[in-house]
User: What shape does this take?
Amino acid sequence: MTPLLLLAALAAPPDLAGPWRAALALEGGSLPFTMVVETSDGEVRGRLCNADSCDGFSAIVSRGDSVIFEMADYAAVIRATWSGDSLVGSYSNVGNRGPRVIPFHASRGNWPVAPTPANLAGTWDATFVSGARTSPRVLVFQDAANGMQGTIVSSTGDYGVFSGHGTADSFTLAHFDGSFVYLVTGALDGDTLRGVFHAGLRTRTPFTAVRSTGKPHLQESTSLTVADTTAPFAFSFPEASGGLVSSTDPQFCNKVVLVDIFGTWCPTCHGAAPVLVQLWNDYHDRGLEIVGLAYEVSGDTAIDGALVRRYREKFAIPFPLLLAGVNLVEETAATLPQLRGFTSYPTSVFIGRDGRVRLVYAGFHGPVTGAMHERQVREYRSIIERLLEE
Amino acid sequence: MMRFRKRFITIFTTLLAAAPSFLLAQGTTVAAERSAWTEWLATAPTSPYLAVAQQPIGPGVTMGPDSADVPLHGVELHRVTASGTVSLTGPTGRRALPRGRAVRLGRYMLVAGGPAGRAVVTVFDSSHARGAPAFYDIDPAASYTGRLQPPDAPSTTRLLAPDGVEVEAALAGTVAVPVADSTIRLTVMRIPDPGSGEATLEIYFRDATSGQGSYPAGRFVELVPQADGRYRLDFNRARNPFCAYSSAYACPVPWRGNALPVALEVGERYVPIK
Assistant: This one.
């Protein structure tokens, strides 16, 4: 080897490929997650995972001793430098009031897998305390192939897949998808679970929880948003791929219609999409139509259209997806004046063959919520079958 | 006037001896935050340095020609109105101005914010000159960890966030800060961030450097939650309200009682606007 080649070999950065046990060092605790990097034909790709729920990085740039993991959809980035065979740096994202920075480090390999302690597994009715305000939540802990996983459920859906570990009477679970930074820790104190939920860098919400008794702890999803049923439900928005689609179009005439109010940015909507596709496959021949109303981040037709088309391809969605507006609750409510109390994405509006709204479900319980998910899917099927019979 | 940092060194001797590596990491984090902040100010299309107007929308704000409420070079007449939602109407029609989202208008960016009935629109000019922030040296001894004393009774108040936009803030309590031979209690407010749905615990304070090296109206510093239920108050993280970067912004008035009679030569300095 010539001296020049030897120098080049010495200067080459280590290979990024493989799994990485990564963590954000919140001052309230370490937030663990996994990164998986693959290289082929000189191209580097990677994804960020909570248990088996993963999101791809938009780009990975390796230059000299620095590596940049980009998450363009969230204006977020992880900047790291090599420290031996580890990566050390920071994660930052940008909000309206400037950037946020959290220290980051990663080592090769996977996080150790340990079973979920039996005295923590199951469902817990929690009360979150923020100043003088309290809010009901349900905590779901279960044992999975990757160890302990779970989620937090509000009246309008879950916070995504959390993964982590439990030891005897305490646990740490985290969810980090590039945008949402969630860490929940807790410990048993007799029969009561006491803990803290960290959202982002600065928001700390203490909670207490007791084992669910089966009595409803959250508000019913069908009681949050109500519709004006004195007239047929009306919508008219452009399709992501072109023309205007309206509730009065022949394709919706005398059909049962499920209107899915969603956004491509919304993880819970991603959890609902395969269910909606399955419902369409099962009931379309009998008279079910589904239409997705997308409320996106930018409000720019070109940008939002591309995101919605990518969403359609990802989930092989066979029904129309319309560009309805931007993803702010008040903006969405303004475009659908027949709904009162619109509160969350996704929201499912069930419409009978006469065009009038029969039921509105606010939010969605994803697969990680277990029995809550199964119950919601059962109820969707039951409503659709009943409406098809009308 | 005494220098506050000396008192900190006395009080936190135990902490310094027990966790030097932690304090080093803390200093690194503050340095990374400053670097990201400086880069954002230098590159973001909505950098506070680029703000040329922040206008209450009220019954409507006109923009564009010289006769408009907000003259904008090369922009035809547009009107910003707010009735629950904020919208921008111009020669090509109407479009939404979602709160907290930047919308382009010629070489300008518009961002709406604020509660219904008191919404404001901030205008950023991409051709405006940018300044650069300046900071005092990082002093690990200016970091304090303690408990937040909850208020006797819950209350909320309307105040201006660092970006000059009005928010409904909740009284979160007070923290005790050692000064000379006693302590001073600083008021902490929970300030919502409409963009993220999160809220930060903020202290807006003045000290003997206000107008003498740091921004005259005061500086914000956040409380950072720790694993043990306490909070870190690191004055190295003190930063200016956006009105320090551009006179277009409304400036928060100092919070009653949050005045420290010592010079806190840490955190962000003030570089007067040219």
Notes: Chain B has three helices and 16 strands. Chain B touches chain A through 48 residues (CB under 8 Å). Chain B has a mean pLDDT of 87. The first helix of chain B runs from residue 4 to 11.
